[in-house]
Every structure is written in structure tokens, then in C-alpha cells.
Design goal:
The structure is a single chain. The protein is mostly helical. It folds into 2 domains: 97 residues, Orthogonal Bundle (Arc Repressor Mutant, subunit A), CATH 1.10.10.10; 145 residues, GntR ligand-binding domain-like (Four Helix Bundle (Hemerythrin (Met), subunit A)), CATH 1.20.120.530. It has 11 helices and 2 strands. Strand 1 and strand 2 form a beta hairpin.
Length: 249
């Protein structure tokens, strides 16, 4: 039996793994994460949630999760409480902790905040941008062309995240960067992407180009306006896609 296959069923010490948490166990086995036991548990569970290894609604009982990630119960309890406070898991009656999802209302609320903060990040990026920052953003845009033509939504989502992270880094404001990282991660709880909408990928690339041009010109006002408008369009597309999914249920 291969190591990965064994991981999906039992650990080397013979302790059985909840079959529903087999993907989490495999993810934990391959994760290279340090820090305290509590931080390691937090990072593994959060990573599994954000990478859709464990889906929305998946029950996360302390003992089965601890077995799956080769941890003791206390660090897992501490990690789950932190994840609940951060909005990535929630407590359900008779179930306990489960992986959270996004409602239309929570999605819209997060986007309202993100629209303002992304505009601020772009404004600061235009103020502090260096040639290396501009080159990094332009490289990401160039890398986006091929997956846009092949309709590779997963790759486009990853590149889009990298593009906005580059702006956040360029803003030179750690508090803003951390807040935006949390908001973006909350949006990742939904499998719906703005890139699911026909033609959105190419439009987004053009919007990214315009944003970079404004940042490169150190035009703070235009950079902020273009970025807020870009986020607003993403919100509208994703809300439409979420509404369509809800109607099909």
C-alpha cells in the first residue's frame, strides 16, 4: 500500500481516520508547516478549507480532526476556536463545528468592505510603486493570457490573487495587507468565481492593465477609482453566479 493510500485510511500507529476526513489527512501529510502545535493545526485546517480539500458543511469534530492531522486534541480545539472567530468555521446545533460558507448577504458585505480597501491599497501603491513592483504586476498580466484563452478558471483565480497581492504589497502598509488577506480568504469559501461568467477573464485582464498603468504613472486618484470599479464588477458577476446556483438547488 502506498503512503498516500495508507494516509487515507489509517495512520502508521494504527489509529483509524474518519473516511470523510481522509482528504484532510492527506493534505496534512504533505503540508510543510512549522510553528506551535496550535498554529500548525490552524494553518493545516485553514489551508485545507481555502484549497477546497474539505468542503463547506464538513463536520470538524475535535478528536477525528486531531487524528487526521496527527495532533493532540487541545491544539485542534484552540485552532477551531480561532477559525470560528475568523469566520472560516461555525458552530451548528447537534453537529458542532463545521466548515463555513458564504450567503449572498455575507458575500455582498465582504465585497462592500473590500471595494473600499482595495481602492486604498491601489492609491498607496501608486504613491510608493517602484519599477520592480510594476514589472511584477505586468508579468502576472502576461501569464494570464494563456489561461484566459483556454478558460482555465482555477489558474485565472490563482493569478488574480497574485495580482492583487502584488498591489497590497506595493502599498507598504502591513495592517491593510493583513486585513485584505483575511477578506480575500473569506471570499474563497465560495467555489463561485467571477471568471465563470462568459468574457469576464479578458475584461478583467484589461482592467488589470489599466490599474497598472495608473500605478506606474503615480496617479493615486485614478488607480483607486479603477481598482474600486474592478472589484465592484467582480462582486456583481459573482453575486449573479451565486444567485444562479441557488435557483438551481
Amino acid at each position: 500500500m502506498s503512503n498516500g493510500r495508507m494516509q487515507m485510511n489509517v495512520r502508521l500507529d494504527g489509529v483509524p481516520i474518519d473516511p470523510e476526513l481522509g482528504p484532510l489527512a492527506a493534505y496534512a501529510e504533505n503540508a510543510s508547516i512549522g510553528g506551535s502545535n496550535s498554529q500548525r493545526a490552524y494553518d493545516i485546517i485553514l489551508g485545507a478549507i481555502l484549497n477546497r480539500v474539505i468542503p463547506s458543511g464538513q463536520r470538524l469534530a475535535e478528536i477525528p480532526v486531531a487524528r487526521a492531522i496527527a495532533s493532540s486534541r487541545t491544539p485542534v480545539r484552540e485552532a477551531l476556536l480561532r477559525l470560528e472567530a475568523d469566520g472560516f468555521v461555525k458552530s451548528e446545533p447537534r453537529l458542532g463545528m463545521v466548515v463555513a460558507g458564504n450567503t449572498l448577504e455575507s458575500f455582498a458585505e465582504i465585497y462592500e468592505v473590500r471595494e473600499v480597501l482595495e481602492g486604498l491599497a491601489a492609491r498607496l501603491a501608486a504613491r510608493y510603486a517602484r519599477s520592480t513592483d510594476i514589472a511584477a504586476m505586468e508579468k502576472i498580466i502576461a501569464e494570464s493570457l494563456a489561461p484566459s484563452e483556454s478558460h482555465d478558471t482555477a489558474q485565472l483565480r490563482s493569478l488574480n490573487s497574485r495580482f492583487h497581492e502584488a498591489i497590497h504589497s506595493c502599498a507598504r502598509n502591513n495592517q491593510l495587507q493583513q486585513t485584505l488577506k483575511h477578506l480575500v480568504n473569506r471570499l474563497r469559501l465560495s467555489p463561485i468565481s467571477a471568471y465563470d461568467a462568459s468574457g469576464r477573464a479578458m475584461h478583467a485582464i484589461e482592467e488589470h492593465r489599466a490599474i497598472v498603468q495608473a500605478i506606474a504613472a503615480h496617479d493615486e486618484e485614478r488607480a483607486a477609482e479603477l481598482t474600486s470599479a474592478h472589484i465592484r464588477r467582480d462582486r456583481e458577476e459573482r453575486l449573479v453566479q451565486m444567485a444562479i446556483v441557488d435557483l438551481r438547488r
